[in-house]
Specification:
Structural class: alpha/beta
Largest sheet: 7 strands, mixed
CATH architecture of the largest domain: 2-Layer Sandwich
Order of helices and strands: HHHHEHHEHEEEEEHHHH
CATH class of the largest domain: Alpha Beta
Number of strands: 7
Oligomer: single chain
């Protein structure tokens, strides 16, 4: 059965460029001079490629297992998973090796250590609707898996994060140049004796939309295109502002719900007092003094202002103000 699955995977990726080094370098824009400068061996990458293809069925099983656990959390709207494409793995290994050798000539990624050096062979995305939900998803992740490294929150300067209830000591915070927003985890998942690493990215649906568009249109070969960068920066502001506006709408709905509950309670009390007046009047037991007292209570309930914390509504106006400032800054 294992051999059968391996054969299917081999056929799925048989059109890869790994067997043609020249075409591979051209497609993925690998610097051939750097490759030769650091004495990299193409045959070792073919070895990693073939070993990785045989490992893909196991990685897919682990990805499904992780995804199913995350889907049990009602705060998560959508769970997506992917296994890194073999060609993209080799490209990443080559780039990381060249970068590593610039700092340490002995640095090497080979068939024995690539699974620990490349931590996103399994990629999971947990998408949510409201920013505050990230904290609950964080608990789910930490309760079910050990972290391989400290979790990272990528954010943009000026982001409003007070609603996310972040325990700061559990994260490292990084400002992303392109405005990328996401919570990143590298977890250890062990279904058998083999320990697998997987990357989980947690973000809102709006953040996911911007990230997907940015990745497809700019990454990795147009990172320095000023026109694309400017347009994607505006889109980033739109997505960030949209998240804040969603929070504003949520707060408004919660406040309205609270007001309605208090109104229902007040109306019930008024009706109870009216019923009491009617009952006592029919029995002839209602004195003028009692009647005045009950009528005064009713009057107080009718004119009483509902005690609601309106600060949320004022904060919402602040959110809308920041939203407009982000989308229509003075320098655009």
């Amino acid at each position: 059965m294992v051999g059968y699955g391996y054969g299917i995977v081999r056929r799925r990726y048989r059109m890869g460029l790994i067997e043609n080094q020249k075409y591979f370098f051209e497609k993925y824009k690998i610097d051939e001079q750097d490759f030769e400068k650091y004495c990299l061996d193409w045959s070792k990458y073919i070895e990693i490629y073939n070993e990785y293809i045989s490992e893909i069925p196991n990685l897919e099983t682990v990805a499904t297992f992780i995804s199913e656990i995350l889907r049990k959390n009602p705060e998560i709207h959508t769970v997506k998973s992917r296994i890194k494409y073999p060609d993209h793995l080799i490209e990443k290994i080559i780039r990381k090796t060249i970068k590593g050798k610039k700092a340490d000539s002995s640095y090497e990624i080979n068939v024995s250590n690539y699974k620990s050096e490349i931590t996103d062979l399994i990629g999971i995305r947990a998408l949510h609707l409201y920013k505050y939900q990230a904290a609950d998803i964080d608990k789910t992740i930490r309760q079910n898996w050990n972290l391989h490294e400290k979790a990272t929150i990528y954010h943009r300067l000026g982001d409003m994060t007070s609603e996310q209830h972040i325990e700061e000591e559990k994260f490292q915070f990084l400002v992303h140049d392109a405005g990328y927003r996401s919570w990143h985890y590298v977890i250890k998942s062990q279904m058998t004796k083999v320990n697998y690493l997987a990357e989980i990215q947690v973000r809102t649906i709006f953040e996911e939309g911007w990230s997907e568009i940015d990745h497809q249109l700019r990454y990795p070969y147009d990172l320095d295109n000023e026109i694309l960068n400017e347009q994607l920066l505006i889109l980033n502001r739109l997505s960030g502002g949209a998240d804040e506006l969603v929070n504003s709408i949520l707060h408004t709905k919660m406040t309205i719900y609270q007001q309605n509950e208090e109104k229902e309670f007040r109306d019930e009390k008024i009706q109870e007092l009216l019923n009491e007046i009617s009952s006592l009047s029919e029995d002839g037991k209602l004195t003028n003094e009692d009647k005045k007292s009950l009528e005064e209570k009713i009057k107080q309930l009718e004119v009483k202002k509902i005690k609601v914390n309106y600060s949320n509504l004022f904060n919402n106006r602040s959110v809308e103000y920041h939203f407009k400032r982000r989308i229509f800054p003075s320098d655009f």
